[in-house]
Hints:
Layout lengths: L10 H8 L17 H9 L2 E14 L11 E2 L1 H24 L4 E10 L7 E13 L13 E2 L4 H9 L2 E14 L5 H7 L7 H24 L4 E10 L7 E13 L18
Parallel strand pairs: 3-5
Antiparallel strand pairs: 1-4, 2-6, 3-4, 6-8, 7-8
Helix pairs in contact: 2-4
Amino acid sequence: MADQQLNDLPKHALERLAGLRDANHPGGVFTSDLTVNEFLLVREAGFEPIGMVVGSSIYHIGFQQANYRNNEELQVLSQAMYHARELAMSRMEEEAQALGADGVVGVRLEVGRYEWGEDLAEFIAIGTAVAARTKGNYRMANGKPFTSDLSGQDFWALLRAGYRPLSLVMGSCVYHVAHQGFRQFLRTVGQNCEMTNYTQALYDARELAMERMQMEAHSAKAEGIVGVHLHEKSHGWGSHVIEFFAVGTAVVPTSSDHSIPTPQIVLSLND
């Protein structure tokens, strides 16, 4: 295993990692949450699955009072949701680094709540660490393994097209949607009309999450982001507070002069 500072990882995580297959421990076994098809395509792309890597953070989410009639971001909650995911991601990356992995594929970010307290949530990052069979520049500029939420099939297709993943990029925005006033309610009873207050609130919140995801990609010097997903969830805060979470994989070409060839269209004589 690589010589890394792993003080942040629990004892049993280190014991599990010690039993996985890596360059210095060929007698170990690999573990993976990839499907059979994904596993075979990742290997065909030139990478060997090493083991499942996990990061976890149980986080206390602070309180922020919202104005009943205002559309506004709850920045305390936005920061909490982002920082908690970052902690989980960094611990998953530590495990991958310890295995000498070049990257992590199929990353999933999950949020779970327990009965210990309504302000507590567990943030989990899970993926499969992989190592390239041949030498290549697959890691990030800071030397850490790349991270990607692409499936095994998409990872294979991305590499074949001449691109490689850099990192999982994300943006979060927790937003309070203003309540409808009584006069507004009376004006809309029985009418077909747009609820502009709600439209603007959700529009603004999504834009903030997307913008922050794009800023992470810019910082990583990526060419673009693929596989973007937009998630919306209240996490138990109530009907008028919702998190908008944008996540995707930042990518770059494998060579500076790379271009994707234009598909050739062949017409039959019967067309």
